[in-house]
């Protein structure tokens, strides 16, 4: 008997018929249904996070180029200046990388909060 029900459900899905899974969302009140735009509205924030991380990588590459040019042009006399600049660039690159990670964490915490609200609303 269960095999016949499974076969009927499979036939309905192939024909585009409504199954219990399709009807589940329509049984809920309008306030508890998940809107499509609520599922992933954070595409812009993900781009900002990537931008911060790319800028951090570019700063590290800039640091390497600055060290090479400083040592080639001035030799050992450039070391104190390069150390100060290296410290500044590494700290700033770390801040940019951390800002990118914080942005991703903000997105994930918002997903958790939204899921909690939906689940509590269904109780």
Overall description:
The protein has helices spanning 2-15, 20-27, 36-39, 43-74, 79-122. It is mainly alpha-helical and 123 residues long. The protein has a domain at 44-123. Helix 4 (43-74) packs antiparallel against helix 5 (79-122). The relative contact order is 0.11. The model is unreliable at 1-9 and 19-24 (pLDDT under 50).
Describe the secondary structure blueprint for this structure.
Blueprint: H1 2-15, H2 20-27, H3 36-39, H4 43-74, H5 79-122
**Mean pLDDT score:** 78
Q: Which percent range fits the helix content?
A: over 70%
Structural shape: rod-shaped
Main sheet attributes: strand count, strand direction, barrel closure? none
Q: N- to C-terminal separation?
A: 33 Å
Low-confidence blocks of residues: 1-9, 19-24
Number of E-state strands: 0
Give me the number of helical elements. 5
Proportion of beta-strand residues: under 5%
Radius of gyration using CA atoms only: 27 Å
Task: Sketch the topology as an H/E string, one letter per element.
Answer: HHHHH
Class by alpha and beta content:
mainly alpha
Which key phrases capture this entry?
rod-shaped, about 120 residues, disordered N terminus, mainly alpha, 5 helices, single chain
What is the gist of this entry?
This protein is an all-alpha fold and 123 residues long. It has five helices and no strands.
């Amino acid at each position: 008997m269960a095999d016949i029900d499974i076969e009927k459900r499979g036939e309905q899905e192939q024909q585009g018929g409504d199954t219990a899974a399709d009807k589940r969302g329509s049984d809920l009140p309008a306030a508890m249904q998940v809107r499509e735009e609520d599922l992933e509205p954070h595409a812009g924030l993900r781009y900002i996070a990537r931008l911060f991380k790319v800028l951090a990588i570019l700063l590290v590459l800039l640091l390497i180029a600055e060290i090479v040019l400083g040592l080639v042009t001035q030799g050992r006399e450039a070391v104190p200046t390069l150390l100060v600049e290296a410290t500044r660039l590494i700290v700033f690159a770390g801040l940019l990388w951390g800002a990118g990670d914080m942005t991703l964490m903000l997105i994930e915490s918002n997903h958790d909060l939204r899921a909690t609200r939906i689940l509590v609303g269904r109780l």
